[in-house]
Write a structure and sequence with these properties.
about 500 residues, Dihydrodipicolinate Reductase, domain 2, TIM Barrel, 2 domains, 9-stranded parallel sheet, 4-stranded antiparallel sheet, about 15% strand, elongated
């Protein structure tokens, strides 16, 4: 990774980010735009072409600073159909290679060796560094570019490289947004996009910053059509034609009350429309929950876990225990009309577990396909929940869970996102939700520092970017509170509900 600055007590948020600018995407553009663009531009300059589309991926594996990815892999399709494959990473302790390789029909160029070869491997030209040193006084490219610049000024000549610079920069942005969203991006969509990651309030004292942060941070289109902005407003990331709806749900322990009916009474007064019970012992509570919900405008959202064992155990008996208890909960969930039953394949403390290999992933797909078939029969789904690295070694990003859903291709298998876990694993709430697409079945929310009631961690509790992603997806399922509470629930719970509604409107 690159340099970073530790925050000082006297720095406000904006000042800290500016002084640590290379680690924040609204200031640097992420490292694919800030640094790797200088490799992309070699190819765009050489070819004289611009990309028409880009598709790729990236992630945040080890970076502990800012909000950027630390690796990207992007495939660009250029105007004439040829491809540019671009890879970069900022991860300490890895092999380093900053170079370009161009393969043509008659030969290749390699900047690492400064050679042109024919297709038989014969060197037809090689840069002679020693001759360069003998014939020129100055070889440092950073000095030479300034020498050329000054000479042009003195001679009254001009050189126009703005267009080349713009093409390379837009190419890097296309690659970044494809990685963030999981969607294919196009040149036309990106050049028309109002995307802007600048914070609305820069809080720089007496400076008039009005208009600086104008625009939308939305990229993908209304109705879930990624790589387009048609029909989206310029002031907000919301889409006027979106069918998205904020349906707030509570886990059983969120609302104050001595019993279930008192809790539901409290929820109704707040306009909460979803109830998320725990899965343990659910089959024995079906009648109780049905009776309590009868006549109310509250439905069962997802069922929170409650299974026994774990599906990635090396012990077949423990795996069977997981499968059997999940089926028991899913049957009860179907009776209650629940949207699905949440499951975590394995927590860090559950051992011995299967190794993190392709074979394990294939096995997981088989097991969840079986669960998905059972869930369909009972009118519900099984929902993967990605956790953060402190809690789980497997499935830590929403995109990981979504990719398994895609591979299984079973309508009974879905995934979810949890703002708490996403705080530690994702660089973009919007990008995380968009990576799930149609497979997103449920969302959990909590404060972003202490996993407490939304709002208890102050300005850190900002969900607007994620809500924009949900609106883009036309998400109309539940956003469910899964959190603790540091203070008086009678005060903090209504405040948290109001906060989410306010931020949903802002999105």
């Amino acid at each position: 990774m690159l340099w970073y600055r530790d925050r000082q007590k006297e720095w406000n948020d904006c000042e800290y980010m500016i002084k640590d600018w290379v680690n924040w995407k609204w200031l640097s553009g992420d490292h694919i735009v800030e640094q790797h663009v200088h490799n992309i531009d070699v190819f765009t300059w050489f070819s004289g072409l611009k990309p028409v589309k880009a598709v790729g991926f990236g992630s945040r594996q080890r970076r502990i600073t800012g909000d950027q990815y630390d690796n990207f892999s992007i495939d660009f399709t250029m105007e004439n159909g040829i491809h540019l494959h671009s890879m970069c990473r900022q991860i300490d302790g890895c092999a380093t290679n900053v170079s370009e390789f161009i393969q043509g029909t008659k030969g290749s160029w390699n900047s690492a060796t400064m050679e042109i070869k024919d297709n038989a491997g014969n060197v037809v030209w090689k840069y002679d560094g020693e001759a360069e040193k003998a014939n020129t006084k100055q070889q440092n490219p950073y000095v030479l570019e300034h020498v050329n610049w000054i000479n042009l000024i003195r001679s009254g000549k001009s050189i126009d490289q703005a267009s080349e610079t713009a093409v390379a920069n837009m190419a890097a942005i296309m690659g970044r947004e494809s990685a963030y969203t999981g969607a294919e991006t196009t040149w036309d969509a990106m050049t028309a996009s109002p995307i802007d990651y600048t914070p609305k309030d820069l809080n720089l004292g007496k400076m008039d910053m009005s208009g600086v942060a104008a625009g939308s941070s939305a990229f993908a289109a209304c109705g879930g059509k990624a790589a387009s902005t048609e029909g989206c407003p310029t002031e907000k990331g919301s889409c006027p034609n979106s069918k998205a709806e904020l349906k707030i749900s509570f886990q059983e322990g969120i609302a104050p009350g001595a019993n279930l009916n008192e809790k539901l009474d409290y929820m109704e007064k707040l306009g909460v429309v979803g109830f998320e019970p725990g899965g343990r012992g659910l089959k024995d509570r079906v009648k109780e929950i049905k009776d309590a919900l009868n006549g109310r405008n509250i439905k069962v959202s997802a069922i929170c876990a409650g299974f026994q064992g774990f599906i990635l155990s090396t012990d077949p008996a423990i795996r069977k225990q997981c499968m059997d208890t999940m089926k028991e909960i899913m049957a009860a969930a179907g009776e209650l009309g629940s949207t699905g039953v949440i499951i975590v394949p394995a927590f860090n403390g559950q051992k011995p577990a299967m190794p993190h290999t392709q074979e394990t992933r294939d096995f997981l797909c088989e097991q969840f396909n079986e669960m998905g078939n059972f869930a369909k029969e009972h009118g519900t789904t099984v929902i993967f929940e990605p956790l953060n690295r402190k809690e789980a070694f497997y499935l830590r990003q929403v995109a990981d869970a979504a990719s398994i859903c895609r591979d299984i291709n079973n309508p009974g298998v879905r995934c979810m996102g949890d703002f708490w876990h996403m705080t530690w694993e994702e660089t973009s709430d919007m990008g995380a939700f968009l990576s799930a697409g149609e497979y997103l079945q449920h969302v959990h929310v909590a404060s972003r520092k202490r996993r407490s009631m939304p709002g208890e961690d102050g300005e850190a509790d900002n969900y607007v970017n994620g809500f924009k992603g949900l609106k883009i997806l036309d998400y109309d399922k539940y956003v469910s509170f899964e959190c603790g509470c540091q203070g008086d629930r009678n005060v903090l719970v209504p405040a948290a509900v109001e906060l989410l509604r306010k931020q949903w409107e802002e999105a």
